Amino acid sequence: MASTTFRIGGDLDVRRLGFGAMHLPTEPAAEREAALAVARRAVELGVTLIDTAHLYGGGANEELLAEALHPYPEGLLITTKVGVARSAETGEWGLDGRPAVLRGQVDAALRRLRVERIELLQLHRIDPETPLADQLGTLRELQTEGRVGRIGLSEVTVAELDRAREIIDVASVQNRYNVLDREHEPVLRACEATGIAFLPWRPVAWGTSGERAEIAAVAAELDATPTQVALAWLLGHSPVVLPIPGTARIDHLEENLAAANLQLTPAHRERLDRLPEQAKP
């Protein structure tokens, strides 16, 4: 049976099946109250890894999590991301890895999350307009200053990961990945080889009707839901995978987290492993 926990950066223990907070609404009031309840229920059910970002409402999502969960229970990791900013001129969001912007977003995150240190901070995207050494060097300085514990990346290639590891110790990578979308399989394998946590965003996604039918068939044979099958496949695919499914509903949250107890047989796993190949023209 696969391990249910992982040690990020070699020293930060979390349960592998986490929670992505992106979908939690921060307004209006009624929806916000429901979102607070979902975040609290996630922790009640044993979640110790929650993912958010400055991009999610310009920090409103971070504030929501603090309202729901502060003071934080021991062992709870809230990881956030920086490096996407809204233009003061156009109001549009775009990549911005300039050192002053990264520092400002980290300062804001510390204030919104009500913490003195962000234990895992991820660069939301590499900004092609700013030298990588400047972006990662700034995060490394924040780490040296004690305001950041560990540094992660998001949406990177193997080559970018290799370059980044020449500058910083990379604790995590957050790329799009699921049973039907394995574009970043090489990145996952690079993470596995070096003990880096791999946090797949969009961990549940449905492709063609035939692919959905195959997943649904496996789910029916196991008396589970297709979502649970997709998450269980991820957990068994690599020991460094830490899925962070998101939802704004408690019933979906409970369904997602129950996937940690679902055991796929080797035959089921083989059928699911073949899906991307079947999708190729």
TrEMBL record:
Residues 16-275 form the NADP-dependent oxidoreductase domain. Transmembrane segments: none annotated. Keywords: Oxidoreductase. GO terms for molecular function: oxidoreductase activity. GO terms for cellular component: cytoplasm. InterPro entries: Aldo-Keto_reductase, NAD(P)_OxRdtase_dom_sf, NADP_OxRdtase_dom. It comes from the Bacteria. It holds the Pfam family Aldo_ket_red. Gene3D superfamilies: NADP-dependent oxidoreductase domain (3.20.20.100). This is Aldo/keto reductase. It comes from Streptomyces scabichelini.
